[in-house]
């Protein structure tokens, strides 16, 4: 069979060079990109590696796979209070890749580049020994010294989360079990909502400036809400007390709560949410929430920071609930 797929250099010229308009990318013609941070700004760097079967399914739409790979990185930048500037792309293609697949993957990147105002700065493409793998390094900038860490939460701060929690984990369950939506009595719109939340995270870039202004600590929720609360509590040397009934959920999750309560509980800590978890001093908490709502990314107070180091206490109907140990997503 004739192989009409482009070779490595033609592939860069045809597919990737049109994505690299930032002069620092040198048109993808050199060994490296060159980036000057603006005076008074820090560069903020983050990388996520995604693999088929681990973060997405091999037969998912190439546009959506591209968008997810970029967006999970933009979510990390937002959580640190940084604005995105560009990204590096490492792509390991399975041996049966097609020009059509790559074209669609690149149109997914093109759409998100204009939606989030970023450009491809450089990268590398190889043939994978196994399935598709994508590694993106996103580069952002934040006013010097103003990035938000996981480690700054203080006792008395309020704990906030953006958007709604659990939809993506429910979407993953629906992908794995075709009777899932029927069993949970979800209607068509609710089903589309959870499937969409699984495949297409919405990085909360609009919150980055508010986090640098108001938050004492922040991170994005990717491993599971309570697992990530534990990560932030430990990093800050404080405890969290979370009121379960305050955790914001969509109407799809509300229905799951009524129809399949055990599965609902698992979804709350299932991960893939890409929402922002932040601690904010109580004196400025309502101002933060008002400004977040104005920015189009509403936030909800779900609890308080306590002085019991590393402990996350979940409260339901006034009673403490046990947090399963080892809960949340782990690769190893
Ligand atoms: C096919 N999942 C994978 S990685 C991760 C989660 C919740 C945590 C965040 O990733 N199976 C498939 N797709 C998925 N998204 C999952 C399982 C769930 P990382 O720790 O790499 O940043």
TrEMBL record:
Q: Where is the signal peptide?
A: none
Q: Does the keyword ATP-binding apply?
A: yes
Binding-site positions, ATP:
123-124, 150, 222
Which residues of this UniProt protein bind substrate? 55, 272, 329
InterPro entries documented for this protein? PurM-like_C_dom, PurM-like_C_sf, PurM-like_N, PurM-like_N_sf, ThiL-like
Outline the extent of the PurM-like N-terminal domain: 30-141
Q: Where does Mg(2+) 5 bind?
A: 223
A Pfam family cross-referenced in the UniProt record is AIRS
Pathway per the UniProt entry: Cofactor biosynthesis; thiamine diphosphate biosynthesis; thiamine diphosphate from thiamine phosphate: step 1/1
Question: PurM-like C-terminal domain: which residues?
Answer: 155-309
Residue positions binding Mg(2+) 2: 48, 76
State where Mg(2+) 3 binds. 31, 76, 220
What residues does Mg(2+) 1 bind to?
A: 48, 124
Q: Provide the top EC class.
A: transferase
* Residue sites binding Mg(2+) 4 per the record: 31, 46, 76
Q: EC number(s) in its UniProt entry?
A: 2.7.4.16
What UniProt keywords are attached to this protein's entry?
Answer: ATP-binding, Kinase, Magnesium, Metal-binding, Nucleotide-binding, Thiamine biosynthesis, Transferase
**GO terms assigned for molecular function:** ATP binding; magnesium ion binding; thiamine-phosphate kinase activity
**Catalysis: reaction(s):** thiamine phosphate + ATP = thiamine diphosphate + ADP
Per its UniProt record, what Gene3D superfamilies does this chain match? PurM-like C-terminal domain (3.90.650.10), PurM-like, N-terminal domain (3.30.1330.10)
Q: Which GO terms describe its biological process?
A: thiamine biosynthetic process; thiamine diphosphate biosynthetic process
Miscellaneous remark of the record: Reaction mechanism of ThiL seems to utilize a direct, inline transfer of the gamma-phosphate of ATP to TMP rather than a phosphorylated enzyme intermediate.
Entry's family note: Belongs to the thiamine-monophosphate kinase family.
Q: Which PANTHER family match?
A: THIAMINE-MONOPHOSPHATE KINASE (PTHR30270)
Q: What does this protein do?
A: Catalyzes the ATP-dependent phosphorylation of thiamine-monophosphate (TMP) to form thiamine-pyrophosphate (TPP), the active form of vitamin B1.
This protein's name: Thiamine-monophosphate kinase
Organism for this UniProt entry: Roseibium album
Q: What is the lineage of its organism?
A: Bacteria, Pseudomonadati, Pseudomonadota, Alphaproteobacteria, Hyphomicrobiales
Gene behind this chain?
thiL
